[in-house]
Amino acid sequence: xxxxxxxxxxxxxxxxxxxxxxxxxxxxxxxxxxxxxxxxxxxxxxxxxxxxxxxxxxxxxxxxxxxxxxxxxxxxxxxxxxxxxxxxxxxxxxxxxxxxxxxxxx
Length: 106
Prior knowledge:
Blueprint lengths: L3 E3 L5 H6 L4 E3 L2 H5 L3 H11 L8 E2 L16 H18 L3 E2 L4 H4 L4
Parallel strand pairs: 1-2, 3-4
């Protein structure tokens, strides 16, 4: 059995020291990085003590993906940006999470 933990990437050293096999950060935090910040993260990831195998909170909670407030172009633009980044980091599993993005009015 392999154990991962959902936490921010800044905690990766402690997560590895605690014995976890991988870290699971928020996808939307990776998407929010500038290109320069992501390039620095990608470079740093080569020295991470454990891999980034999974991510959670795929969509930002303020991005609506269902209902009348959903903006299809915004959603697909976001996907086109974040998925290649996640693949470059070695992510193998995405947890959608972010119930705010899926919530619709009564």
